[in-house]
Design a protein that fits this description.
heterotrimer; A alpha/beta; B alpha+beta; C alpha/beta; B: alpha+beta; MetI-like fold; 2 domains; 4-stranded antiparallel β-sheet; two-stranded antiparallel sheet; about 60% helix; elongated; C: alpha/beta; Rossmann fold; 8-stranded mixed β-sheet; 11 helices; 12 strands
Chain lengths: ~350, ~375, ~350
Amino acid sequence: MTNQPLLEVRDLQTVFELDEGTVRAVDGVSFNVYPGRVLGIVGESGCGKSVTIKSVLRLIEEPGRIANGAIRFRSKILGNSSAEMVDLVQLPAKSAQLRALRGNEIALIPQEPMAAFSPVHTIGNQLMEVIQLHQPVSDGEAKKIAVNRLKEVGVPNPESAIDRYSWELSGGLRQRAMIGMALTCDPLLLIADEPTTAIDVTTQAQVLSLLRKLQQEHQTSIIFITHDLGVIAQLADDVVVMYLGKVMESGPVDQIFHNPQHPYTRALLRSIPTVYTKNRSRLPTISGSIPHPFQKRTGCPFVARCQEALPEQRCANQAPALKAINEHQSVSCFLHGEEVNVS
Amino acid sequence: MTSQTTLSSEVSEKIKDEAFDVAPNWKLVWWRFKKHRLALVSAFVLFGIILIALFPDFFSIQDPNKSSARESFMPPQGISFFHDGSFQVHVKPLKGKRNKTTLKMEWGVDEKRILPLHFFTSGYEYEVFGLFKTDLHLFGIEKPSARNSFHLLGTDRLGRDQWSRLMHGTRVSLSIGLVAVGLSIFLGILLGGISGYYGGWPDLVIQRLIEILQSLPPIPIWMALTAALPRDWTVEQTYFAITLILSLLGWTTLGREVRGRFLSLREEDFVMAAKLSGCSQSRIIFRHMLPTFTSHIIATSTLAIPVMIINETFLSFLGLGLRPPAISWGVLLQEAQNLQSIALAPWLLLPGLAVIFTVLALNILGDGLRDAADPYS
Amino acid sequence: MSAEPTQSTLTNNALISPERLLDVKELKKYFPIRKGVFKSVVGQVRSVDGVTFHLNQGETLGLVGESGCGKTTTSRCLLRAINPTSGEIRYRQADGQLVDVTQLASDQLRPVRREMQMIFQDPFASLNPRMNLLDLVGEPLLVNGVANRKERSDRVADLLRLVGLRPEYMRRFPHAFSGGQRQRIVIARALALNPRLVVADEPVSALDVSVQAQVLNLLLDLQEQLKLTYLFVAHDLSVVRHISDRVAVMYVGRIVEMSPTDELFLAPKHPYTAALLSAVPVADPRIRSKMQPLEGDVPSPSNPPNGCHFHPRCPFATELCRQQAPDLEEVQPNHFVACHRQAELKLSGVSEPT
């Protein structure tokens, strides 16, 4: 990748101080988002993918906090020159800069569009509000923009849909309207938090192809979060695989699926059922279950379930760092890199 | 099977949390409740109040109905701990002098003498639950007399000891609250349960009944009902009648809540699972449905007790509830109703503080229980 | 068909081959829509609208469809967890006797329900949080007459071992277990009475990807060990492909296609099946689908379109499809399709594994 990253997350740590103890929900996560590319973050429950993007959006609330790390964003509004990056972690919470950034340059598509729309305002009113919040336009112009957005995301009869309430729309249309709202200000970065988890598979296919189409037209960067490896394979250019708050592996999508380097990625890909498997065959499994986040951990989070763990408790005692193994791919595992022999 | 080897690897890390894993729900609730300091303090305060309600005579210093015209409107006597530089719990006796012009008794402290205070002394004789007689009291002075009298919270117009009356009033007021709430719970669970579990026409009838009861303005209804009680009823009869009236009107909120719970529980998977595995209806109700919200019922009723206490106090204050010679907080406050008492003997309002403390403690405890029972609501 | 009902049941019974465990005919479940003060019925949600299928002993039938297609309602009707509006559910009991589950009174239902059990989707909701494993798994035993405590705890220990849990866990409460382990508890409970038919309603969809395979393998193992028959309800086609011998696809209350699994995945005959298959995101970036996603949304079962329910979204719909609903017909041995144009359409399924 020759061009400069749009977003650089470095060693991000987000912790939650609960009565039961400190939960390191995100524990040293680093990744880059490049202009015009789709980054998929994939992981199971408790892997910290949602907390990661909440951190990027600076939406972490008490008792959580960003304990460490940098989230550098190449902002057009806040940066003085295009070469300069703004560290979002350094901006005060609830500051005007953050607000200007959210919705304008960074937009979110939430998992539950039903909860994201207000039930007492029409779709049109909410779209126009967002438009007028970020652009100085008249009501009439705002309405025109809103109708165009809805048309663009494939809502049929946008002129009449604009006067309807979110609960009058079907799940698929609602998610389309949400995407339209997220795109109102032509954001540089679109963050999608499991946007297809709550909808059916045929509707999911519609939404995914819509996102693909819009991404190619607008050259928006997308961070796409999901637990579904199929969705990642279909949509992402780059992939980050997370497990219990840490990045296990990251790299281009083809490498991750066809040349996975981390034992977790490999085991996960082997264990998922696909429409290709012969029926009644036994799948290779990953043993055990995901440890509870309260459990104190030293070493690699996957060690208890890993079949390739190194002898003498090495993986259990020491956590491997995320290392680049070639130009594009990074892995955090002692199986890779010279550190294995160094004691 | 691969799964067996799988789980054995987890055993080592699981053993640490053994206590948590085998903890039944009430233990989890208790662990959460313990963290709520204020509620814990309230629980201790209430424990004390309940002790008083159980053994009011033990805490009294004098028969609450013993009147003495010569001792009317005596002010409270403060307790001192040191005398002549040495530790000696005592009170100073009061000296009365009749004002020649107003003909009122004016009380002054007799600084010359002290009355040493003793713990676990003997005083007037009383019966404990009709089981045995004793004259043991928590504290008091030796040989009280007209010259050497001790009234911690002063006396009322008839010269009755305010402290002892407060102790006895606690018994009546608290027990009315508890019994009325107990009856309300019974009615609420029974009718709300029928309504929610069976649905159909019983639900319709009970819901309309609740709506009617809730739409009645409570104060006139209480007034009408209590006014209808025959004047010649004994103290005990009125007492039970009042309790009954309070609970007959008070079960509706709980009834609604129980119904809602049953309605939502009916759709729960684990109730469906119980039904499919052949559980009888009573087992489903008593083993599966009720236990999931007992902690809620406890919390709700804890919050309902103070309402009942206030209601009783209120009724008696208006002279519609209990009447002398019964003693309750409301009766005590009723006696402090007129301007004269407030001006001359403000200590007669002290039962109001007792009401406030008890109600506060119950509310805080109820809040703590509710939070512990369901941390998400 | 004879006019006398008893006569007709007898003749019908004679037609059922002995390997059939369950025969469902024209099953319907309508939920009334009530409105207003007097709760008058203003419409019907045709959740299940004339479903016919059968289950052979020892096989797994996968029932797939999108949300609102009626698959869960169908599965619940089989056990009379909800009462069907009409239709027949004939079940062959262990002693060979045939009963129509829809006609049983509640006391007659008990012995039949011992043979049919259900596994629910959400293992967090289907286990009573106030009971420990001994009580949870032992409850079906207790209420069905195993009163002896020792006997019961021995049996519970066996069951826990069977599903891959340690019997020492018996005193623990559900909150001590992860989702996958809880689903094992649910399975152990379902197996307590030695059922013959297990209805599994989305048993893995609430689980993490890395534990789904464990539970699927366990279900397959148990089926072979205990000769169980499964009705496996799911929305996830990959899971269904993995576990089912035959698959039935539902759309808005009706079965549109039913056939052996491989046949359905490789050569679907209904346009909806084909669309469903192409919509599944393939976990391989080299096979980025060239698919045309289906237009529109799943219609509401309270107001389904006329004719074939699928016609508004179907790229092949004709005037006939708009007016007349096609019947489910056996177009090849064991391959049932409800489509007017099935003979002329050339649809593609998934390609063979590479």
